[in-house]
Amino acid sequence: LQVESENRKTIWNTEEVPEGSEFDDTWDLREQPEYQILFKQCVGTEDVFFGMSGKDPSTACCEDVVIKIKLPETKYSDITLDIQDTVLDLRTPKKKLLLHLPYHVDSKNGKARFLSEEETLEVTLRVSRKFDFINF
Known about the structure:
Immunoglobulin-like; 3-stranded antiparallel sheet; 2 helices; 7 strands; PIHD3 protein; PIH1D1/2/3_CS-like
């Protein structure tokens, strides 16, 4: 069984191209900065002391992803940050980071702050899961 393409000249379907591939510049020789991916969970006394909500310490029960990126010798005004649902793209004059995120995030409502004394950019993104109404 052979599937006919809508346009015979196309090599692949747009569904086959992963999100964020337009940012992938293999020719760009800027160094990748050090970074950490952390997960944040909102807990109350009912979680900590009684375990009533059913939350566990796994990433499946976390609401936010926090990405900490070390950017030594960088000014806040030099940072360009673009966030898609599954991709974080950060560029400075000396560094470049293309990061495929572990979960889908709400790309419209994230927060970023630059901690100049630590030379770190901290990006907080809300995890967007399809079945959160079941989990929480």
